[in-house]
Amino acid sequence: MTSLVLSAWPDSWSREQRCTATMVAAAVVLALFMWLLAAPLAAMPEPIGPAAQQFAEGTRVTVELTLVSGLLGVLFGVLAAVGKLARLAPVRWAASFYIWSIRGTPLLVQVLFVFLALPMIAPGLALSDFNSAALALAFNVGAYNAEAIRSGILAVPKGQTEASRSLGLSPFQTFREVVFPQSFKIALPPLVNNCVALLKDSSLAYVIGVAELSNVGNRVQAATFQPVPVFVATASLYLILTTVLTQISGAIEARLDVEQRQH
Amino acid sequence: MSHLQPQAVAAARAPLPPPAPAQEPLIRAEGVNKHFGKAHVLRDVTTRFFQSEVAVIIGASGSGKSTFLRTLNRLETHDSGRIVVDGIELNDTVKNLDAIRREVGMVFQQFNLFPHLTVLDNVTLAPRRVRGARREEADASAMELLTRVGLKDHAHKHPFALSGGQQQRVAIARSLAMSPRVLLFDEPTSALDPEMIKEVLDVMKDLASSGMTMIVVTHEMSFAREVGDRIVFFDHGRILQEAPPDQFFDGQENERIRAFLGQIAH
Question: Which site among B101, B145, B157 would you substitute to test the A interface, given the most A Cβ atoms closer than 10 Å to its Cβ?
Answer without folding.
Answer: B101
